[in-house]
Design brief:
- The protein starts with 22 loop residues before the first helix and ends with a helix.
- The radius of gyration is 20 Å and the shape is globular.
- A hairpin with a 5-residue loop joins strand 6 and strand 7.
- It has a six-stranded mixed beta sheet with strand order 3-5-8-9-10-11, with helices on both faces.
- It has a single domain, classed as tt1808, chain A.
- The protein has 229 residues and is α+β, with helices and mostly antiparallel strands.
- The protein is built from seven helices and 13 strands.
Length: 229
């Protein structure tokens, strides 16, 4: 009699920066990781985040706070912080912040709770990740139809607002008052100099002015009509 040994299951390898994986394999390895950490799949390549320093954490809080105020004033949109987003088969980023239209927008929520498709607006804090955020990741967002892409390079203290026009990202400059106004989310106004100088009260005052604008009220009404259908 020949005794056969039961087949041994191979351990699932851990995620490491530089791995080239499919999205399915990326998710399989991440789910098998006992200690969760931020990991992204960008153009088929894995990027594991380094420890977060205050140079990233404070700007991150500023952007999330700004978006959260707009979210609270605009039924029909939702914001998310560090949320895995399934863009396509080679890209599963975890944007620092995003804003999406819930009904009739370009993204949906899967049964497992993932965002699928491109949110209308994505924001990234680029500290040590600037080469990725302004390179492969930017291209993935552009190709998948993210309408507005915000990048805050904290070492240079530079803020770039890109808008998708004719399938290309075009930099939008602030007006004479230092303000940029979203074309996708009426009323989402950003006082760029105030943000870069840490004057958050002025940032939020500028946002409140945008929220009071008639175009924001019309947008809220449009979203309400969509929800009622």
């Amino acid at each position: 009699m020949v005794l056969q040994q039961p087949p041994r299951s191979m351990p699932i390898p851990p995620l490491e920066s530089g791995d080239r994986l499919t999205r399915a394999e990326f998710e399989r390895r991440y789910e098998a990781t006992p200690e969760k950490f931020k990991a992204e799949l960008i153009e088929g390549v894995v990027y594991v985040a380094s420890p977060v320093r205050v140079f990233h954490g404070t700007p991150h809080a500023a952007l999330v706070g700004w978006l959260a105020v707009y979210w609270a004033a605009t039924p029909g949109v939702s914001a998310a912080d560090n949320t895995t987003t399934r863009l396509d088969l080679d890209n599963e980023p975890q944007p620092d912040a995003l804003l999406r239209i819930e009904i009739g927008g370009s993204s949906t929520i899967s049964e497992g709770g993932y965002i699928e498709g491109a949110p209308e607006l994505v924001a990234e804090i680029a500290t040590s990740s600037a080469a990725i955020d302004l390179g492969a990741k930017q291209n993935a967002y552009r190709r998948n139809g993210v309408q507005e892409y915000l990048v805050w390079q904290t070492f240079e203290n530079r803020f770039s607002w890109f808008r998708l026009q004719a399938e290309e990202f075009v930099v939008i400059e602030p007006d004479a008052d230092g303000m940029i106004r979203s074309s996708v989310f009426p009323g989402l106004w950003l006082n760029v100099p105030a943000l870069l100088e840490g004057r958050m009260k002025e940032v939020l005052n500028g946002l409140q002015t945008g929220i009071a604008d008639p175009m924001h009220q019309a947008f809220v009404q449009l979203l309400a009509e969509r929800a009622a259908l």
